[in-house]
Every structure is written in structure tokens, then in C-alpha cells.
Amino acid sequence: MISFPSSWHVLLFILAMGPRTFALDTYTAAVYEHSVILAKNPLKPVSSEEALKLMDENMDVLEEAIKSAAKQGAHIIVTPEGGIYGFGFTRGTLYPYLEDIPDPQVNWIPCTDPERFGSSPVQKRLSCLARHNSIYVVANIGDKKPCNSTDPKCPGDGHYQYNTDVVFDSDGKLVARYHKFNLFMIEQLQYDSPKEPEPVTFTTPFGKFGLFTCFDVLFHDPAVTLVSKLHVDTILFPTAWINVLPHLTAIEFHSAWAMGMRVNFLASNIHLPSRNMTGSGIYAPDGSRAYYYDLESMNGHLLVAELDSHPSRSPSYLPSVNWSLYATTVETFTQDYNFTGSIFFDEYTFSELHNEAGNLTVCQKDLCCHLNYRMTEKREDERYVLGAFDGLHVVEGEYYLQICTLLKCGSTDLQTCGEAVTTAHTHFDSFSLSGTFSTNYVFPEVLLSGVRLAPGEFQVLSDGRLISQNRTPQPVLTVTLFGRWYEKDPPNSHTHSIIL
Ligand SMILES: *[C@@H]1O[C@H](CO)[C@@H](O)[C@H](O)[C@H]1NC(C)=O
Ligand SMILES: *[C@@H]1O[C@H](CO)[C@@H](O)[C@H](O)[C@H]1NC(C)=O
Ligand SMILES: *[C@@H]1O[C@H](CO)[C@@H](O)[C@H](O)[C@H]1NC(C)=O
Ligand SMILES: *[C@@H]1O[C@H](CO)[C@@H](O)[C@H](O)[C@H]1NC(C)=O
Ligand SMILES: *[C@@H]1O[C@H](CO)[C@@H](O)[C@H](O)[C@H]1NC(C)=O
Fold first, then answer.
1. Quick check: CB of 345 below 6 Å from ligand 4?
2. Which ligand has its closest atom nearest to the C-alpha of 389?
3. Which atom of ligand 2 is nearest to the CA of 275?
4. Residue 218: helix, strand or coil by DSSP?
5. Ligand 1 centre from 148 Cα, in Å?
6. Mean pLDDT to the nearest integer, 76-86
7. In the chain, % of residues over pLDDT 90
8. Can you tell me which atom of ligand 2 is nearest the CA of 276?
9. Among candidates 420, 413, 358, which has minimal Cα distance to 383?
10. Domain match, 29 and 67 both
11. 119: CA distance to ligand 1 center in Å?
């Protein structure tokens, strides 16, 4: 009899702790691609009531997604950048949408104590959605922080306004606040950058998380630091991403970042086909678990999938890669006739894939790209090239790139190589792409006809080769090693000055 009360105590203890205090090997992630309801005219000043009305309309839609995700067992849901009030404001017209978002150290559950930091209806509603559905909720809203002449950088209107990601845990507590560091161009008309990048992390029973926003993914800080120094398991990534083919389509680049950095990556994009905004996904280091890309439908879309809580402990974890090892040791293949062409304003050196199969090298500055390939059939109506780019990209942000790319040209005219193409007919039986990279930050991209990913259909070897030995399930648009040489970025490249 003596054992009965003691095991009863253990049981009570377990019930009191609740299931979420136990470490989980896997968890269920959700991301919602939201068809945001935009302000009719974001340049026109509105009252706080009107601002809240628009935000509530968007949160009504997000609420359905959060409930549905929770019903499907999701532990966390990510919603997009600008998902609550959209974009295109000025500093002044954005102001009524902002709330004072405190440092999470204050230990605050807005759902149960909404007035503690002044009027916070948006934080209260998000906190209650998290609490009532027992799910972590990640959202993007705006923070305002007063300042005055004691701070020489204080803006003329007496406050800073930040593009901010917030996370509420499953009790509704604010556990993370991140101010976007790398603002994209015209965003500087409505937001300030924090003085220093803020590497924000939090831990859960299903792993360590870090977060950053949209354009941040192209830069070293805070994105790379979160992975290489703070060792997060999963990145949370609210975004309002405009697709740019061939290398910067949302699903393509974000899944490549997950693979190159060897982390889970939860990307939630705005759904606005008229502006080429679509593409969300749940990405693991070895490939996409679920993704969505749809320029036809007008509706939002919920993705739910299971992930390892700690991908670095999984048996399928990629070995660390030396991205230049193979390419610097192999003999260069024949350098055929080459020509130049432009991709997203960068001047590439190209060489054509003339034959059904072959070995090709093309070089630019320090970068030589090697390709070994076999097509299923060499078609007369499609042309493919191997391209190399080693240089500073300077349009819509300044960042140094080293890129090796196999891609389909726009037409049979070689001047169209690098143009956006979305369909193809040529399958590849095999390919192996490598480059003499000077950086060890390389993101491997494979994009197939119809703008589709190819999870599980290719792999990266520890010597830096991106290979496939099976016939591609769809024809190939591009196979790319997208390298970022952060050390060569100009200083202060996050303050991308704009001329008004
Ligand atoms: C100016 O701002 C600082 C810190 O933000 C604050 O401590 C101080 O009271 C403010 N001064 C005035 C005159 O408002
Ligand atoms: C969207 O992308 C396609 C192909 O990349 C391009 O032709 C089109 O002009 C873009 N549309 C907008 C609205 O930017
Ligand atoms: C990768 O391999 C090359 C060639 O052997 C070597 O020079 C380089 O130091 C290695 N890079 C890293 C990051 O280990
Ligand atoms: C380009 O082609 C020419 C021959 O036409 C060759 O001599 C040269 O080495 C090639 N350059 C590169 C960078 O591939
Ligand atoms: C490419 O090179 C490899 C090794 O150098 C060789 O075995 C293979 O036959 C070549 N392939 C073609 C199609 O020329």
C-alpha cells in the first residue's frame, strides 16, 4: 500500500507539469500564407480606430488559420511580415498601427493583463489566440519607442518605429521580440533600423528558435550569427517576399538557406499574386517538408508538417561541407566559347551546354564553376547554359555574390539567358555542379518546371558538389550554388540608402 500514494504523487506531479514540459524529439510546425487585406490608401492618415479595424479584419483570418493549425496538432504557427496591416505607408500614416512592445524579460501575458503597457489591443488578441489554442504564435507588427534630443539619432517626430516580429508562447506570454535590421529600400520611409543587429532566441521543449525577417536572409547579421554562434535548431521567418527568377524565388532561396545553414526554416509569405508574392514552406536541412507556391488562387493557405526538434542530432544530418574542396582539386574541364549576359542586373559569364552530355567549366574572376551533366534528350527548342558570377550586386541592396548556375534560357536566342522562365521540357538524368568558392556560405538551389522544388531528388556532398543521379521528376529550370561572400560586403550595407 505504501507504493500507492507515492506513485499517485508522481502522477499528480506529471499532470501539474503538463505535457509541454517534456522534451520532444519532433514537433509539428505550421506556416500560413496570408492573402492580406490592405489599407485602401496607405498614404492617407487614419485614426487609431480605423487602423485597429483593418488589423482586426486581418486577425479574423489569421484566427481561423491558428485554430485550424492547433486542431492539427501544431506546436507553433508563423504568419507573414505585414500580415496584420500590410505595407506602403509613410512614417506618419503608419503611426496609428503601432504599439509599444516591451522587452520580453518583463514576463507579460497580454491576454490576462492587457493594460500593463498602455493600449495594446493587437498584442492582447495575439496573446489570447496563442493561449486559448495552446500554440506558439509568431506574428509581425510595429513597435514604437519614444526618444528625445538626449539621443542625437532620435528622428524628428520623437520616436523610433520598428518592423517587429513577436512570439507568444502557448500560455500567451510574450517570449520574443525582434526588430528587423536589414530594411528593404522603401521600407525606410516607414521604419527605423535598430542601432545594432539583435540576435533574438528562445527555447522550447521542441528546440531552440531564432527569428529574423525577409531581407535579413541575404545578410550576415543577425541571420548567420543565430545559426553559427547561437546554434538555433529552427529559424522563424515572416516575410513579404517578391519572387525574382531565376535565383530569388521564395521557396527556392529559403529552402536553399535551410540546407546551406543546416537548420529548420519556417517561412511564411504574403499571398499577393498580382505582385508576385507567394511561396511559403516548412524546410528541413535535407529538403522541404511542405511548400506552397500558387499564382492562380486568391486565397491564403495553411501548411502543417513534422520536423525534428534538433536536426543536428538526426541521423540524416548533412556532414559539414567544404564548398570549394572538389572544384579546387579537379582538373578544369574544357573552356568552350563563352559570352556574357545579365541576371538581375549582374553580368555573368556563360557557356552553352551544346551536347546531350558533357563536362564544362566557366570562370569569372576567382570563381570557376564545373558541371558534369547528362540530359535525357537534347532538344532543338531549348538552350541551357552554365554561368559564373563573382562580384558585388548593387541593385536593391548591396551584397557580394559568388554564383555557379545551370539554367534554361528564355528562348533559343542566347541573349535571353538569365531571363525569368517558369516552364521547361528538358529532364536531366544526372548533374554534378561545383565551384571554387572563396566563401563557405553557399546555398544550393534546384528549381524545376512550374516553379517546383525537388525534395529528396538531389544532395550535397561534403566536398561541395551538388549532385543528382536520378532523372529529375520534372524538367529543369535551374540548378544553382548561390554563394554569399559576406566579408566583401561594403560596410553598413544594411543602411541601403535611397535617393528621394
Ligand atoms: C529623454 O529620454 C530619456 C531616455 O529615453 C529619458 O530618460 C528622459 O527623461 C527624456 N527627457 C525628456 C526631457 O523627456
Ligand atoms: C512577376 O514575375 C514575372 C516573371 O518573373 C514577370 O514577367 C512579371 O512582370 C512580374 N509581375 C510583377 C507584377 O512584378
Ligand atoms: C576547403 O578545402 C580547400 C582545398 O583543400 C582548403 O584550401 C580550404 O581551407 C578548405 N576550407 C575550409 C573552410 O575548410
Ligand atoms: C572564354 O572563351 C575563350 C575562347 O573563346 C577562352 O580562351 C577563355 O579562356 C574563356 N574564358 C572563360 C572565363 O571561360
Ligand atoms: C566527363 O569527365 C569525366 C571524368 O573526367 C569522364 O569520365 C566522363 O567521360 C566525361 N563525360 C563526358 C560526357 O565527356
1. no
2. 4
3. 13
4. helix
5. 6
6. 98
7. 90
8. 1
9. 413
10. yes
11. 21
Calpha distance 9→23 (Å, rounded): 21
Please, what is the end-to-end C-alpha distance for the chain in angstroms?
82
**Residue whose C-alpha cell is 573552356:** 335
The residue among 303, 308, 70, 94 whose CA lies nearest residue 168 is: 70
72 lines ligand 4 (CB under 6 A): no
Spatial distance between the Cα atoms of 208 and 26, rounded to a whole number of angstroms: 13
Q: Do 352 and 295 lie in a common domain?
A: no
Task: Tell me which residue range forms the domain holding 387.
Answer: 338-488
**How far away, in angstroms, is 351 Cα from ligand 4 center?**
9
Residue 419 Cα to ligand 2 middle (Å): 11
The model's pLDDT over 430-477, given as tens digits with 9 standing for 90+, comes to 999 999 999 999 999 999 999 999 999 999 999 999 999 999 999 999
Same-domain status, 219 and 342: no
Catalytic annotation, residues: 81, 180, 214
Contact 284, 308 (CB under 8 A): yes
Counting the structural domains of the chain, the total is 2
Q: For the whole prediction, is pTM greater than 0.70?
A: yes
- What is the rounded CA–CA span in Å between residue 288 and residue 448? 14
Which grid cell is 180?
Answer: 528587423
